[in-house]
TrEMBL record:
Short name of one Pfam family: Aldedh
Name by which UniProt lists this protein: Succinate-semialdehyde dehydrogenase / glutarate-semialdehyde dehydrogenase
Species in which this protein is naturally found: Microlunatus soli
Coiled coil: none
Domain Aldehyde dehydrogenase: 17-475
GO MF annotation list: oxidoreductase activity, acting on the aldehyde or oxo group of donors, NAD or NADP as acceptor
Amino acid sequence: MNKPNNGTVRNWINGVWTDHAGPTIDVINPATGQVVTSQPDSSAEQVDSAVSAARSAFSSWRTVNPSVRAQHLHAIADQVALRIDELATAVTIEMGKPLDEARGEARKLVAALHFYAEEATRLRGSIVPNADDGFSSLVEYEPIGVVAAIAPWNYPLELIGWKLGAGLAAGCTMVIKPSEYSPGSGLLLAECVAATELPAGVVNMITGAGQTGQALTQHGDIDKIAFTGSGATGAAIARGVAKATSLSMELGGSCPLIVTETADLTEAVRGTLRRAFRNAGQICISINRGYVHTDVYDDYLAALAEGATRLVVADGLQTPNADVGPVVNQEIFDRTTAHIADAVQRGARVIAGGGPISDLAPGLFLQPTVLADTDQDMLIMHEETFGPVIGIARYTDLDEAISQANSTSAGLAAYGFCRDLGQTFTLSKQLDFGNVAINNVDAGIINAPYGGRKGSGFGVEHGREAIDGYLHVKHTRIRHGA
Ligand code: NAD
């Protein structure tokens, strides 16, 4: 194997790090504005080589015993565990997440890979009764084939890793495209895979921007597309597939929070701070908008503003335990400031933060911002911001708050804080979202299915259920006469 990643990211196709003579795309550290590496802007021909490698590897990988697939997954997890700091540093440099948080992501990836290793050994089918004597019907699940896995940059390790874990557990082969904002951490993950005995071609990784993704998703020899990213890209992919192709779409959201008059306010504020500002608000399940009962509105807002003001915003490489790093690119920086300006112009009050931190320019740093007295017409209350800002509205009637929470096209995650059993079940049943977290803000855990609905997509990651998306079903009816 030739040497990977010596400054420039390379493609990994059929077990070989391939040299690239064509155009490249720079990667910029959002905390400093400096170029940190560059990556191949892979062509349709390079995509085709990766898909061909995955296709040819599939014919034998699909028959590998699940217990052996499990050993491979455990081995990949072990390699990742050896390189936590290196992987985390790449994540911080490329997309700005503070180093301690990036280490946490790498450790969670290790746990996810071990989880899917174990699940690989538990795949099973069933025997279905027949109306006729002397027949048996076997229902079995088989790997779907070659998977195109396309990831965004906000959790650049985990969002590749969940697909890798579930796909390999099922017996699929994969062509993975990391985001053009985070190819270095993606390729380090490929190095971890390359350091194991996994057969060549089972996993391939190619870099590039939207055109490379398009060449991959429109390739005629792909059996499944596992996509995480924005709703607009998801819709473009769905429109462009070359043939009947299995799809899973983990898309964006505008996640609401409801704080009722019975809530533990200390916990509600702690949870809001974590889920609105972690990763600079660049999480698909970030709380974008809050609806707070009028009886606790002022106390909640005062504590939230104080907490937001105390958050440490810094370059997460220099200050590994910073609370908030830069946002990843100018587009998010501009959208966040535009959402703040829109809300203010329509009558919202800024009670913490409010805009850019000019002392840290050219780094793309924004103050954690709390907007009070918002209403549903403001962009912050119905569009995904993906930046460190939250809008808070007052409510008096819980049904009305739930109706506003449900009123957008988003269906990924919703949050509630309350200590009343009736309110708890009302929130759980009435919130029209794939994930509802009550009195906590960690809606996604590896053991349970995690997916969106409505404009936030379909299909799930996490849990045993994620593997189902990489399998198809076969019914064999046998006339044996017994
Ligand atoms: P994006 O849609 O711009 O890009 C995602 C990936 O798609 C990248 O690898 C990109 O190169 C590729 N791509 C772009 N155009 C393509 C095309 N036409 N065909 C194929 N691939 C194409 O999203 P982003 O800015 O990287 O990520 C942010 C978005 O992702 C947010 O909306 C966020 O909510 C969402 N997200 C969702 C989840 C979830 O689990 N639901 C998790 C993380 C992020």
